[in-house]
Each structure stands twice: as structure tokens, then as C-alpha cells.
Amino acid sequence: MVTIGTPSDATPVVGNSACAQATTPETLCGGVMFYNSKLPTSAGGPFILNSNAATMKLASFDVAAGDPNHIYQDIVIFQDRTVTESVTLNGSTSFTVVEGIVYVPAAQIKLNGNGGTLIVDQVIANTYDIKGNGGTIKVLRGKGVDAIIVAAAADEVPQPLIDQLAPGGRLVMPVGRFFQELILVEKSLDGKIRRKNLGGVAFVPMTGEARQ
């Protein structure tokens, strides 16, 4: 799936195109989304992007509200939950910019610097394998998430989850140990945070460092 900012961006001339000269995720234009899934007669395979000593710039999918594909807004790589093959991004002695959300919920994301510079935005995955390999990896998190639902109770709402909310975004999760309450967190367009107690609930506890 591809979206284009302007007709001229479809075939940009590096010398006069701001999109082609972009060096940060937020200055990219248009957008593309890679969708990795499986078919009834064909299993999903591994997903690998190599820039191979060249410059690779990927802007996230950008469509108008009301469009059926708006559910994929701000996503640049989407892998279906039924696919457990890894997704690999390699810098490969080059400059690579990936704007938007890399969504790999059931698999591993591999980020390799490989002697180049790899700049990514938000990454959601089951496990992570991050290697500099003589290069530089930067995670900028320029895009926010519109909605987060957590189905395990923690002592407090983790601040990293609140930080991931986009302006206008909402988060719902249970909070508490013995007596739990369902908490709604809303981030206004100007970044202010509002919390609301939706009542008592009973969920399994969150485990590991996330609980803290």
C-alpha cells in the first residue's frame, strides 16, 4: 500500500525534492505500508529490508480519516498476528530512515546497524534483537499510538505507555493488586493527561519489570 504527498514526489529529483533529502522520520513525505501475512495455501515468510550501501527512506502510511484503510494510519510495517517469522531491518553501511510504527506482535524484530545509520520510530514486537555491528541505531518515537488496551493489572499505569499515546489518544488498563480499578488515561491535543476511574475489575497481575 502506498500514499504519495504530491504527484512530483512519485518520481523525486534529489536536487530539488525536500522528501528525497529528508534526514529524519518527521520530514519524510507520502507513505508506504508493508503488510506481511499468510494465505490459505501459503505460509508467511521472513521480512528483511536491506539498504545495501544506498539510502533507504520509508514514510509511514498516511490516509484521510474515514478511509477504510485509516486503521493502518502511521504504520510502515504491519505483520499479522498469525505470522511468527522475524522482521529484519539492516543499515548495511548506509543511511536508513523508517518513519512510523513497526508492528510485529507475534515475532522478533531484528535491528542491525551493520556499519551504517539506522533510524526507526516506534517498534512493537514480541521479542527484540538489536545489534550495532559497528553502526548507529536511533529510536526516535516520533509517532504516537491512538489507543492502548492492557489486559493485566499493574500497581500504576506505566509511564512509557502514556508516553506512547498520540495527542487525542486513550489508554485503558486495570490498576491495583488486591483491589483493582479500570483506569482510563486520555491525552489531550495539547499533551495534557487526564485520568478517570471506570470502576472495579478483576484481572491477572502484570509480571516482570513492567509491573513496577
Short structural summary:
The protein is mainly beta and 212 residues long.
Task: Give a verbal description of the structure.
The structure is a single chain. The chain is mainly beta. The chain folds into 2 domains: 2-139, no CATH class; 145-211. It is built from 1 helix and 16 strands. Strands 3, 4, 6, 7, 9 and 11 form a 6-stranded parallel beta sheet that branches. A 4-stranded parallel beta sheet has the order 5-8-10-12, with no helix packed on it.
Structure keywords:
single chain, 212 residues, 6-stranded parallel sheet, 4-stranded parallel sheet, 1 helix, 3% helix, disordered N terminus
Instruction: Kindly state the number of beta strands.
Output: 16
Q: Give the DSSP E fraction (strand runs of 2 or more residues).
A: 35-45%
Poorly predicted residue ranges: 1-5
How would you sum up the global shape?
globular
- Per DSSP, the total helix count is 1
Helix content: under 10%
Order of helices and strands: EEEEEEEEEEEEEHEEE
Domain unit count: 2
- By secondary-structure content and strand pairing, the structural class works out as mainly beta
Radius of gyration: 19 Å
> End-to-end span in angstroms?
39 Å
Task: Set down the secondary structure blueprint.
Elements: E1 2-3, E2 31-32, E3 34-36, E4 47-50, E5 55-58, E6 75-79, E7 87-90, E8 95-98, E9 101-112, E10 117-120, E11 123-131, E12 136-139, E13 145-149, H1 159-164, E14 165-175, E15 180-187, E16 193-201
Parallel strand pairs: 3-6, 4-7, 5-8, 6-9, 7-9, 8-10, 9-11, 10-12, 13-14
Antiparallel strand pairs: 1-2, 14-15, 15-16
